[in-house]
Amino acid sequence: MLENEFFQIAFEPQKAGRATNFVFIPWSQDITGKDGFFKDSFREIGGEGQLFNFGFLYPEYPYRAEIILNAEEEARIRLSLDIGAIDKNYSGWILQREYSLKRGEPFVYVTVRMVNDGNEKKKFAYRPSHLVHFENETVWYFIPDVSGVLRDYDPPVGSDGRGSHGLFTMHPVGSWMGCMTESSQRGLVFEFDWKHLDSIEAWISSRTGSIAQWFYRIFTLSPGQTWQTSYIIYPVEKLISIDGASSGLAGYSDHRNKY
Predict the structure, then answer these.
(1) Which end of the chain has fewer CB atoms < 10 Å from its terminal CB, N or C?
(2) C-alpha–C-alpha distance, residues 184 and 131, integer Å
(3) What is the set of domains in the chain, with CATH numbers?
(4) Segment 42-86, tens digit of pLDDT
């Protein structure tokens, strides 16, 4: 369990390291559903020349958890997964996810690290996914695209039968995505690492709820090398749209004023 004045996050390492509770304390609201909040997804690699040949892999293996820091000013937990347990071709590869909360800050700090302690040079690709759930609310998603901010809504689960589809850009012009509920005007913003970014997607489904996720570019690791990236998550409220986000600030604009 990670906790500060703003967040209360409970992880279950045996359930693929997901956060089964993701509570924003000032709202008294758990912003995830029964499947947990954080979800890893890998682009499965079937060998050289067959990158992405087998689609996506969502590992359900148990993770190992350890407390990295437990101090008054900051708490941090690390969850680790042996990739070689999923695919023997990646023997010695370790995924590490670190989550940190700092005293007095309404941010969740996330670091993702892939370590090649094996004996072979290989390619890999990773996508962090976040199962966002606002109970009985319509949630609007916002993604920065070269054509402008893309937007679409995710209805309450079980409501209007829209089915499932993605709000997607392969040409992002910013390293962020956000969501905002229609009635209570509460939401989340994700800011991530531009230098590794490939594309951004909100998977929208009235059957299962929505997923906020982005794709990192394919990377290659030689034995002994490490790939690392980081991102932050923070709450926003009382916005009618999300048209930009940077350095922990998000806002919207209209024809007359900027907010």
Answers:
(1) N
(2) 19
(3) 2-251 (2.70.98.10)
(4) 765 544 444 434 444 667 789 999 999 999 999 999 999 998 887
